[in-house]
Amino acid sequence: MEMETCGGADEGADTLSPSTLKLYETQFFGFTPETCMLRIYSAFRDSLCDILPVVEKVCVRQLSKGESDGAEELLRSQARECSRKLQQYLERRFKQLAERMEVLLVNRCFTVPASVLLPEDKSHSKHTQDIQEVLKLESSLADVQRAYEAEVCARQALLAELEEQREVQKQLDEILTWVRELQVAWVKEGNGSFHESFRLVMESVKNLQKAVGEVCNKAPC
């Protein structure tokens, strides 16, 4: 025997609108009261769909003893029709009872009193903060964030300058090394005091630059 499709769960789902959900109760119990009733209703329908075929077969077997095949088939057809009507009647009655049970459970069993708090909400009730204090803390946090960002930018600038100074120091060290090597080579060749010779060279260069300047000034345009 094929029973009617158990689709009452879809009808019950219409009651789960956002306006009827009790969010704090859902958080407290871990489920919505409406969902609990929907599961009970679905379990009843599933049990009904399992039991009625068995009852129908037992009835047909007991009543068809000593009857012909035609009479047994007619009895089976009548039993199927009776089972269908009984299923519709029981579902309709249970749906009415489920609606009443839902109202009672939601209002009396699955309702969290205003004095009851979840563990994670108790700390908020003990340490209530004024909205102005919260805004002040948020403003202070924003100031700290801006100061931190400024410190980061300044640190990056200092690191860049330090790297530049290291590069300049490296170049100066290379120049000093070259000068020392030149001084050693100068003395090694027996050219006298390096500092005195260097002074004379610099004076010669200045005189040469002065002479070149005079020549350029006297040259016709």
Please tag this protein with its features.
mainly alpha, 0% strand, rod-shaped, 221 residues
Strand content: under 5%
User: What is the 3D shape?
Assistant: rod-shaped
Mean pLDDT: 76
| Total E-strand runs | 0
Largest sheet: none
Q: How large is the radius of gyration?
A: 50 Å
Structural class: mainly alpha
Give the SSE string: HHHHHHH
**End-to-end distance:** 124 Å
Oligomerization status of the protein chains: single chain
Query: Which consecutive residue ranges, at least 5 long each, have pLDDT under 50?
Result: 1-21
Helix content: over 70%
The number of helices is: 7
Helices and strands in order:
Blueprint: H1 8-12, H2 23-29, H3 33-63, H4 69-109, H5 119-126, H6 131-188, H7 194-218
Helix pairs in contact: 3-4
TL;DR?
With 221 residues, this protein is an all-alpha fold. The protein is 79% helix and 0% strand. It contains 7 helices and no strands.
Please characterize this protein's 3D structure.
The protein is an all-alpha fold and 221 residues long. It has helices spanning 8-12, 23-29, 33-63, 69-109, 119-126, 131-188, 194-218. Mean pLDDT is 76; it is low at 1-21.
